[in-house]
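hey so i finaly got around to running the thing on Oxidoreductase from Kineobactrum salinum. pasting the sequence first so u can double check i didnt mess up the copy paste, my clipboard has been acting weird all day
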Amino acid sequence: MYRWMSHALLWLLGVLPALIALGSLPAGTFDTAGGVLNALGRLTGIGGLGLLLVTAIVSFRIPGFDRLFGGLTTLWHIHHLMGAISFLLLLAHPLLLALAASQVSLATAVAVLYPSGVAVGLGWGALLLMMVFLAPSFSFFGAPHYQRWKSLHKLSGVAALLALAHTFMLARTTAEPWSTLIWLVLAGAAIAALSYGLVFARRAAQHRYTVTGVARPANNVVELSLEPVGKALRYQAGQFVYLTPYDSKLQAGYREEHPYTLSSAPGESGLRIAIKDLGDASRAIGAIAHGSEVRIMGPYGAFFPVHNRDSELWVAGGIGITPFLGRARELAVRGEAVDMHLIYCVQDEARALFGDELRRFSSRIPGFSLTMHYFYKHGPLAGDFVRDHCSDCAQRQVYACGPGPLNGLVRQIALAAGVPRHHFHSEEFDLL
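ok and heres what it spat out for the 3d tokens, dont ask me to read them lol
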């Protein structure tokens, strides 16, 4: 299935209740200002709840499902956008109904807003809970703490239940049995998705591994080596996983899951995961004990296509080298001729992670070339630098992985050089 079709179907599912409600409105609904406002108030409430339930449905992480949408990062962006639109629609819902009621009298409008009954109170409760768990998601108070954000996000399930109860008690726009059927199907799918994430995924979709080594390619980066206990994970180069350590002596992060990119080649017996110190958990994992257990859930992501015969330009920044490292290790094992150029951007020579190994790939992999870009020497990455070292960049598929500003800069350079938009691919790895 084409990705645009997956995206379109997901959005259609979210707005379908509102479309059915729109078709159920009686003739003459839009003849007066009060009628228009009342109809919009109902449709925004129905549309907001539909999108909220679909947002919950896509929050589960079945490995492989995210590839239909271009990877888990893209699916998360859809999740965020749907959640934001859902909140705005649900916020507009009571205001529009109150404006419609103001056509009768101010007292009627106030009565619409005032939570005098259980049903209206449930609706306001859902809105208030959405404000609480959405605030950190959109960084209203700065970058959120990952585990705190995860805990607060569980309120989304309560908010959805309150909104559903509010709708069942007051729904009268869509004729029965369609109204009940629509909400039961969407609510059932959302509950199934949440149950998968909270119960099934933790029991059946996790892979147990043992820590067999901790390498330190830099002061603030470690690379864990893991061997499977039982069934090994199957994955593709450039994908990422959620790792949960079970070393109780860790100073932070014990039994907390965090996403990390695989740096190993798919053909290896074990896994390798490069982790940069970006917080308490990633800092503490550098001291994880040999022989301790970790659990892996995944794989996720669709950075590299399964099959590609085109020439490629890779641009990595800092720890963003990880997906390219995994793919280069895979190519080194295969020994097949390729046409790939890697530009690796780092501050200076000391921060070139896996630099020696990458240089060896230039001689081991036919058609693989490496260009180092040092910010202290070359300044910000520029189009002239890219074209000087990769003159045919416009004819290549371009992959970028690094900090957001670098990815944005590479995109500008690629498009200015004539690279078609659909030939540019980036991995921002922003999963909050």
